[in-house]
Amino acid sequence: MGLQLKFPNPAARYRASFNCIAGCHGEHELNEVIYQCPRCRDLLEVVHEIEPLRMTPPQEWKDIFDSRYMRTVWPYGSGVWGKKEFVCPNVSDENIVSTCEGGSNLYWAEQLGKQWGLPDLWVKLCGNSHTGSFKDLGMTVLVSMVKQMRSEGKNIPAVACASTGDTSAALAAYCAAAGIPAIVFLPKNKVSSAQLVQPLAHGAITLAIDTDFDGCMAIVREITGRNNIYLANSMNSLRVEGQKTISFEICEQFDWEIPDLVVIPGGNLGNVTALGKGFLMMRDVGLIERLPQILCAQAEHANPLYQSYLRGFESFEPVSARPTLASAIQIGNPVSVKKAIRVLKQFNGAVEQATEEELAEAAAEGDLTGLYNCPHTAVALAALRKWLRQGKVRRDARVVVISTAHGLKFTSFKTRYHSSQLEGVQSLLANPPIEVPAKYDVVRDTLMRALDARMAQFAPHS
Questions:
Q1: How far is CA 288 from CA 133, 271, 293, 401, in A?
Q2: How far apart, in whole angstroms, are the C-alpha atoms of residue 161 and residue 259?
């Protein structure tokens, strides 16, 4: 007998539409090429009709999700499309473009938690995905909707994005899988080679522009606005719908228990928005009863949300982002700032920053306990460590850190750390290779000294 998936109440008719975040009246279909409210020019968001979702009891939804999770029945084995009714019911199954994204492991960071005095520390490894970052979760929804629109006869010749690396990789891969041309705008010499090669390999038209991300964003908005090319950046809220499944998966992996604190790095702030939206939607349907606190972590060199937080969110001023090791969040004028602030206010949210040295040391400390995360995840780890030292986190709290990308995309960052070549960073935990001549006695003596030192490092602390 084959696998039997569960499905919700057949009488329910699921629907979602674009609505203005400022509350302007009127809605827009998801297959309409629109990113901003035509009245006030504010961003749009996807709003789901909740009542049809409530027609299925919460426990039945949980059983449905469990029956689909990481199974092989297309397309519901995807961590995103297994929640299709909550994500994008407007796309036909035959137009879904998926790489079975999601389903990333929720890693118990036992050793790091012991060192920090936080035994219930977890890391959601979103970088364990097809292109190596959480951006796959949103891109599957966006590209699927583009395929849907093209099947309906809409003239969309290509999809474009500005990127600091991960978005371009995801867009290029999903467009290649869909047979749709992709265009990416990258800041010249500001992305890792591992990130640059991904859109090149997938055949995307790749433009390296002599500016930063904010400059690329300004250009791509103009290009897409004037040339009927579809915009794939996070100001397009279809991306948020896929990324909000991070929240669903965390709860599912904890058997529907809710963490106390979720720490997430923030750049363009779409993922902060998505994280909150997922928890809010689950609460509205009755899947969960309470919300966690959210801590958004920013690099000190690109910290406009942190500066706004210090002012009680009473005002927001863009900044000129300076170069940071966390290059993907080197963004001084985040598109989704209004959405993110609204989310943080609903979650007793806060914002913390990390210096270049703090993030580099946090990355190295995590790596020594078995993690291998990107520098952006290290910003979140550093912010959490600050909060622990300041007594802002209960030692018995269940804490989840969102890891946004795989460390293999940032080997240059890690190599330079361990060779003590990061400017302004002491590399206190550097572990360079030990060069020795090919002589047994020298190798043995050198090895034993190193082993004694390492055993002392791992000895239990009294």
A1: 27, 20, 14, 20
A2: 33
Within 8 A by CB and 6+ apart from 137, the residues are 79, 80, 101, 102, 126, 129, 242, 243, 245, 246
CA angle 212, 214, 220 (to 5 degrees): 105
Q: What is the pLDDT of residues 397-409, one digit of tens each?
A: 999 999 999 999 9
Residue identified by tokens 């939804």 is: 61
Q: Residue 459 — pLDDT band, cuts 50, 70, 90?
A: low
pLDDT digits over 206-236, tens only? Answer: 999 999 888 999 999 999 989 999 999 888 9
Q: Could you tell me the CA-to-CA distances from 380 to 92, 124, 303 in Å, in that order?
A: 37, 12, 13
Q: Are 390 and 295 in contact (CB under 8 A)?
A: no
The rounded distance, in Å, linking the Cα atoms of 342 and 279 is 14
Strands 399-403 and 27-28, by their bridges, are unpaired
Pairing of strands 399-403, 44-48: unpaired
Distance (Å, rounded) from C-alpha 261 to C-alpha 401?
8
Peptide bond just before 75 cis, omega within 30 deg: yes
H-helix or E-strand containing 198? helix 193-201
Provide the CATH topology of domain 106-130+240-418: Rossmann fold (3.40.50)
d(CA 54, CA 65): 15
How far, CA to CA in Å, does 229 sit from each of 155, 157, 160, 183? 9, 6, 7, 9
Contacts of 130 (CB under 8 A, 6+ apart): 99, 100, 101, 136, 173
Among the listed residues 197, 153, 209, 201, the one whose alpha carbon sits nearest the alpha carbon of residue 176: 201
110 membership: H or E segment, kind and range: helix 110-116
* Angle between helix 411-418 and 356-367 (nearest 10): 90
pLDDT at 462 (0 to 100):
41
Q: What is the pTM of this model?
A: 0.94
Residue (of 126, 373, 296, 141) closest to 234 by Cα position: 141
**Both tokens of residue 181?**
């041309």
What is the three-state SS of 339-393?
HHHHHHHHCCCEEEEECHHHHHHHHHHHHCCCCCECHHHHHHHHHHHHHHHCCCC
Report the C-alpha dihedral over residues 428, 166, 238, 316, rounded to 10 degrees.
50
Provide φ and ψ at 47, rounded to 5°. -115, 125
